[in-house]
Amino acid sequence: MFTVEQRDALRERVLRLAKEDDRVVAGAAVGSLAADDGDRFSDLDLTFGVADHVPVHAVLADWTPWLIDELGAVRLTALERGPTVYQVFLLPDALQLDLSVTPAARFRPAGPRFRLLFGETAAGQPERPVRPGDLFIPTPAVAADVFGWGVVYALHARACIERRRLWQAEHYVGAVRDHGLSLACLRHGLPAVQARRYDDLPAETLARFGDTHVGAVAPAALRAALGASVLALMREGAEAGVPCAEVVAERLTELH
Asked: Are residues 154 and 244 in the same domain?
């Protein structure tokens, strides 16, 4: 488990990287660490505004090798929403780093948990398209992305258990299990959509998930189910040939 000091040191290194990059014109903290000091389970979530003449993907593409080579980061997954591109990394000691980049002309707070660290935000109101909410972030049916989001949900579940947000933790434990089962479906050539083909998985595969259900909305039961779900996810990731599966399994040892 990472320490607050490790998280603070990572924050300073990433901010220094951004300030030394002429393409980056603004930066902010978002999430729990933007509103207050968070807690020892808070991940690091930083967002940056990029000069409008620069493709935002180019900045993340240039930063990613540095994060991997210098900091030992593993890229878990990526997401695009409107003009913003997100990437999620897992560092040693299970420290999660969320990075996002947006063109400067559209770099604005999307909510109250936004604290500007340098530069300026764009004028105007944030764009908030009205749409129904999703239970989970839509995940492409690609093994590496399914695995990566499963890891993200595992870290969320652990934080929720420790914060005694037990019903929220139960939700995320279920997400870890579902992403593991979806990986199994992909591996066996079955559609991985809305659990429709879980029952068609081989009995020996389903047996791996036998202990993943939450027996009670209580810390001990949640930890047990989370441990079993993470173990099943790690096994499926390895068998699916996800490149980072072995490293991630080592970093999540305390969860399974």
From this structure: yes
- Give the residues across from 88 on adjacent strands: 77, 98
The number of beta carbons lying within 10 Å of the beta carbon of residue 163 is: 13
| DSSP per-residue string spanning 161-207 | HHTT-HHHHHHHHHHHHHHHHHHHHHHTT---STTTTGGGS-HHHHH
pLDDT, tens digit, 9 for 90 and up, residues 97-148: 999 999 999 999 988 889 999 999 998 766 554 454 555 666 667 999 999 9
> pTM value?
0.92
**Domain housing 75:** 4-118
Domain count across the chain: 2
Q: Which of 30-34, 54-58, 147-151 has the lowest mean pLDDT?
A: 30-34
What's the CA gap between 203 and 212, in Å, rounded?
15
